[in-house]
């Protein structure tokens, strides 16, 4: 093919043809970089983009979503399952269809996940303006709904001429595949421009194989890290989600074992090490474990690997000693330098290898013994917490324990927002690495079922025999449940556990813990609801085509779960849990929340003073 050959295509046809010819090499195998897409058609994407997608429906399968926001969540779940090595696109019509994707764009941005947004836009010519669903801006006619995506994506462009995609598409892909800048990319596609033609260079559509860059760390930064670690008396490793995205689990484990350094995990890094590993001291932070938090507050050197050190990890920066030195390995410069860290900007796998080769050091025996003893005590607490032999009320922890005992080690666990992230993080015993997805980067209720559907699509491409298991509360279920229907339609089976506590129970708990009266969280405390009643979740799930059943206790839950494992389609299990009793009460670090400085309530005033009393432990950093 010569460089002067051209192909006459519409903008939409060119975008889709180019996407279909992008590949990535994973473990020596080449496969399409884009696994397909999620789409809801309307004016703004059906006539032109829809026409182009029809012609590649085998190469780029299009899953029809039920809600644009949930499509974005599904794309995030897909990207997580593929460890950011592959992505899905989402397409939505102009106006509200596109604006519904704002929340999922923010979720993928916060979690540093790739997703391509191909969204309808108003006409470039403005000849028919104002069109249906157009947001008119009186002082700037170029400003529209799609501009709202600028703060929540890593790459943004509005295509106003067909030739622009020759530059824009490669830039979007480069952003999504960059370990440091990974996040969603947005292309606004005006309705008229989608159908305009252009003589594209034929070489633009040649097959291209991508590889994700591994950035080597700087020798001087490695030297600084070595100097700090070599002097450590009480070292600790924080393992974040970036360890998995770097495919550095083995290197992390080898580094910890060689130098006998205890490891704690963030929420995103929750399945970096097996629960049985002797150096896995547990999850750290606000939703952590007594064991991890006990060593965190004593550690003098902290090696943070692939974590952005958000407040649930750091206990709003009270979990660590003020004088502790942090050494941060991260592909992103922004994250590597937080809180006076010694930065090692580079790939986690390469950085751990380079640091490990040069480090002649083993942590003191008494420190390692202290950490292991703390973990043994925590394991005993969890074992009791998840047990259900006595007369304790039904709880999240008990449901987690039942599933943990019965699931396959490679099954994927999905939870998000509400009370379940804390309960899963604290109580789940990791059976295999990379099998837990607790969406707490954006803490987005409604992610659970949709994210699991996307994960199941990806999982079926790699491990089709494994299950994807969803833990979801009734509050999140009511927010976004329609991808139960999507999973049945697409034959991507999920096992969904709906744990019903009568509203937003974890926020009610936060409300009470800060001295406030229960108000507007549990249904029984909503003054605008004269007669609360329970939703029949079993009937609702059945109406979407799922198999569903309701159980009364954890023992029945176990029996139902075994039936769900044998089901040929999505299986929903409903169990009521107590909104007040049965919470995991141990393992929590301090978390800063805003409390009233003046109040007429004595209980609120007292809680405010108790909250402020912990502020003295807070590290002051940047």
TrEMBL record:
One GO location term (cellular component): acetolactate synthase complex
Taxonomic superkingdom: Bacteria
Question: Region Disordered: which residues?
Answer: 602-622
- Compositional bias (Basic and acidic residues): 602-615
Thiamine pyrophosphate enzyme TPP-binding domain location: 436-574
Q: Where is the Thiamine pyrophosphate enzyme central domain?
A: 222-355
Q: Which PROSITE patterns match?
A: TPP_ENZYMES
Q: Which GO terms describe its molecular function?
A: acetolactate synthase activity; flavin adenine dinucleotide binding; hydrolase activity, acting on acid carbon-carbon bonds, in ketonic substances; magnesium ion binding; thiamine pyrophosphate binding
- GO biological process terms, semicolon-separated: inositol catabolic process; isoleucine biosynthetic process; L-valine biosynthetic process
- Coiled coil segments of this chain: none
According to the entry, every stretch annotated as the Thiamine pyrophosphate enzyme N-terminal TPP-binding domain falls at: 38-133
Q: Which family does it belong to?
A: Belongs to the TPP enzyme family.
The protein here is known as 3D-(3,5/4)-trihydroxycyclohexane-1,2-dione acylhydrolase (Decyclizing)
Lineage per the UniProt record:
Bacteria, Pseudomonadati, Pseudomonadota, Alphaproteobacteria, Hyphomicrobiales
């Amino acid at each position: 093919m010569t460089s002067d050959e051209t192909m006459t295509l519409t903008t939409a046809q060119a975008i889709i043809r180019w996407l279909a010819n992008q590949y990535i090499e994973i473990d020596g195998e080449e496969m399409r970089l884009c696994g397909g897409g999620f789409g809801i058609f309307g004016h703004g994407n059906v006539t032109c983009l829809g026409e182009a997608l029809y012609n590649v429906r085998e190469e780029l399968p299009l899953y029809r979503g039920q809600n644009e926001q949930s499509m974005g969540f599904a794309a995030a779940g897909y990207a997580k399952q593929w460890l950011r090595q592959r992505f899905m696109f989402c397409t939505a019509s102009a106006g509200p269809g596109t604006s519904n994707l704002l929340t999922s764009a923010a979720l993928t941005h916060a979690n540093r996940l790739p997703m391509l947004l191909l969204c309808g836009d108003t006409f470039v010519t403005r000849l028919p303006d104002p069109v249906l669903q157009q947001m008119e801006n009186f002082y700037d006619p170029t400003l529209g709904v799609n501009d709202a995506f600028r703060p929540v994506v890593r790459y943004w462009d509005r295509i106003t001429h067909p030739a622009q995609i020759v530059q824009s598409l490669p830039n979007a892909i480069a952003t999504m595949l960059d370990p440091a800048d990974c996040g969603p990319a947005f292309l606004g596609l005006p309705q008229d421009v989608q159908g305009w033609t252009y003589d594209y260079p034929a070489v633009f559509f040649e097959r291209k194989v991508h590889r994700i860059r591994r950035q080597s760390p700087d020798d001087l930064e490695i030297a600084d890290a070595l100097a700090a670690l070599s002097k450590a008396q009480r070292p600790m490793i924080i393992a974040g989600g970036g360890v998995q995205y770097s495919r550095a689990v083995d290197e992390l484990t080898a580094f910890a074992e060689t130098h006998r350094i205890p490891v704690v995990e963030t929420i995103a890094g929750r399945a970096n090490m097996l629960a049985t590993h002797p150096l896995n001291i547990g999850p750290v932070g606000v939703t952590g474990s007594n064991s991890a938090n006990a060593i965190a507050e004593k550690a003098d050197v902290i090696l943070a690997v692939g974590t952005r050190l958000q407040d649930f990890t750091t206990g709003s920066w009270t979990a660590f000693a003020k004088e502790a030195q942090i050494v941060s390995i991260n592909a992103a410069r922004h994250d590597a330098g937080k809180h006076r860290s010694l930065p090692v900007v580079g790939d986690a796998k390469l950085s751990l290898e380079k640091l490990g080769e040069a480090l002649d050091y083993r942590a003191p025996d008494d420190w390692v013994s202290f950490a292991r003893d703390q973990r043994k005590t925590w394991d005993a607490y969890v074992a009791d917490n998840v047990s259900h032999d006595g007369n304790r009320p039904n709880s999240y922890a008990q449901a987690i324990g039942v599933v943990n005992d019965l699931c396959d080690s490679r099954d994927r666990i999905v939870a998000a927002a509400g009370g379940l992230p804390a309960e899963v993080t604290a109580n789940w015993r990791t059976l295999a690495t990379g099998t837990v997805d607790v969406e707490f980067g954006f803490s987005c209720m409604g992610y659970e079922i949709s994210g699991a559907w996307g994960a199941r699509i990806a999982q079926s491409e790699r491990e089709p025999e494994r299950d994807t298991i969803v833990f979801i509360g009734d509050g999140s279920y009511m927010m976004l449940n329609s991808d139960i229907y999507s999973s049945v339609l697409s034959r991507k089976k999920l096992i969904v556990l709906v744990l019903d506590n009568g509203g937003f129970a974890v926020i009610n708990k936060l409300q009470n813990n800060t001295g406030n009266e229960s108000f507007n969280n549990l249904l029984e405390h909503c003054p605008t609801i004269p007669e609360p009643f329970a939703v029949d979740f079993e009937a609702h799930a059945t109406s979407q085509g799922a198999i569903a059943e309701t159980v009364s206790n954890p023992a029945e839950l176990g029996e139902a779960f075994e039936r769900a494992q044998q089901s040929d389609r999505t299986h929903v299990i409903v169990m009521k849990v107590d909104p007040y009793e049965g919470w995991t009460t141990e393992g929590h670090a301090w978390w800063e929340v805003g409390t009233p400085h003046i109040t007429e309530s004595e209980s609120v005033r007292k809680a405010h003073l108790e909250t402020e009393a912990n502020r003295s432990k807070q590290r002051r950093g940047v």
